Amino acid sequence: MEEERSVNDAILKVEKAHTFIGQHHILQGISFESKADAVTVLIGRNGAGKSTALRTVIGLLPPSEGKIFFKGEEIQKKKPYEIARMGIGFVPENMGIFAGLTVEENMRVAMLVEDEATTQRLERALDMFADLRKFWKGKAGNLSGGQKQMLAIARAIVNDTSLLLIDEPSKGLAPIIVDAVIEAINQIKDHSVVVLVEQNFYMASSVGDYFYIMDDGMVVHGGIMEELVHDEGLKSKYLGISKTGD
Question: What is the pTM of this model?
Answer without folding.
Answer: 0.90
